[in-house]
Amino acid sequence: MDILKAQLQLMPEWKDMLQQRYQILYTIALTKGIGRRTIADILKLSEREVRKEFDQLRAQGLIHVSREGAEITETGQHTLVSLKVLVDEWSGRHEKESKLKRLFGIQEVHIVAGNSDESEQSQTLLADEAARWIYSHLNSHMITAVTGGTTIAKIADHLPQTTKFKQLQFIAARGGIGKDVQLQANTIAALFAEKLSGSYKTLYIPDRLSESSYDAMKQEPFVQEMMDLYEQMSILVHGIGDATEMARRRSSSSEELRYLQQHEAVSEAFGYYFNSTGQVVHRIRTIGVQLEQLEQTPYIVAVAGGAQKAQALESYFQQAPKQTVLITDEGAADQLIQALTH
User: How far apart are alpha carbons 47 and 64 in whole angstroms?
Assistant: First the structure.
């Protein structure tokens, strides 16, 4: 590291150049067959700059360029892995991760570049980081539960196709039938299982139930089987949403929306609504993972980004289990640190 510091003193511009080249290489790794113009648009660079970097990366054997666009080589993949810690430290993300981990008292925090509210690239980085974490912690015979939502659905695209594990099982963390089938926990559990050659169990029941239907459903053998599986899950992957937005997506009644407003609901996760101090102020009547089951789950992976999610994240993490792993972006992280330290 002393040698590195000496090099930077001699050539301070090298730090910015390396980070830019790293971002270009990372973007190529995420998007097979990407072109120079697209990268220029994503990273806000000129096509001339990107062309120059492409030539350098190709000469070093880090990428392969064809008519279909650029693809990363195996050497390029190894280079990304080797440089990640250094680039995160230089960017300040490592320091922010440590700060949020301490402020929330949770197991891990991973921050990706950008703001998901403004950049599709940041959304992709978020999903890729979550996929890498999940894959690196999987073991054979493990049960993983997943919730629904756009962010969680994208994670499946970044999981590698493998038959490495034996008897992996993926389960829907909640029920769901009706619209937006592609974003429901049932569909996402199936996608995870397809990529990782595992099995899956779905829960095709309405997301919202009347009291009598809820009581009746709890007695059904297939529901009891799912509840037993929730007790055995090793990983729960879930998103965190803004309370009002999530209520509207569920077509909540005007009465329910007023109730949430009166009780100052800020965030939502797996059917529970939390206020700014992390207290549960409302929950929808649904079959799925229960809040009390989280305490015995070894790994809980919360994936959410964007500056607009900061308030919801702050609300949820007032009570999040200590074994939670937060995967977020700089947009949300910067807002959180500002709010929590001022």
Answer: 18
CA distance 152 to 148: 6
The span from the CA of 322 to the CA of 137, in Å, is: 17
Please state, in angstroms and rounded to a whole number, the distance separating the CA atoms of residues 245 and 282. 15
**Distance, CA of 240 to CA of 243 (rounded, Å):** 9
CA atoms of 88 and 94, how far apart (whole Å): 5
Radius of gyration of the chain (CA): 22
Q: Is residue 228 over pLDDT 90? A: yes
**pLDDT digit string (tens) for 138-153?**
999 999 999 998 899 9
Closest CA to 147 of 268, 246, 280, 236: 236
Strands 69-72 and 63-66: antiparallel
pLDDT in tens, 250-277: 888 899 999 999 999 999 998 899 999 9
Spell out the domains of the chain, with CATH numbers in brackets: 2-89 (1.10.10.10), 92-341 (3.40.50.1360)
What is 224-290 written as a DSSP string? HHHHHHHHH-SEEEE--EEHHHHHHHTT--HHHHHHHHHTTEEEEETTEEEETTS-EEEE---SB--
Host H or E run for residue 57: helix 47-59
Contacts of 45 (CB under 8 A, 6+ apart): 20, 39
Q: What is the DSSP letter of 138?
A: -
Per-residue three-class SS string for 70-100: EEECHHHHHHHHHHHHHHHHHHCHHHHHHHH
For residue range 272-327, list pLDDT tens digits in order: 999 999 999 999 888 889 999 999 999 999 999 999 999 999 999 999 999 999 99
**Does residue 177 register a pLDDT over 50?**
no
Query: Is the pTM higher than 0.85?
Result: yes
* Cβ neighbours of residue 94 closer than 8 Å, sequence gap 6 or more: 85, 88
End-to-end CA distance of the chain: 33
Q: At what angle do helices 36-43 and 13-30 cross, to 10 degrees?
A: 120
CA distance 181 to 202: 12
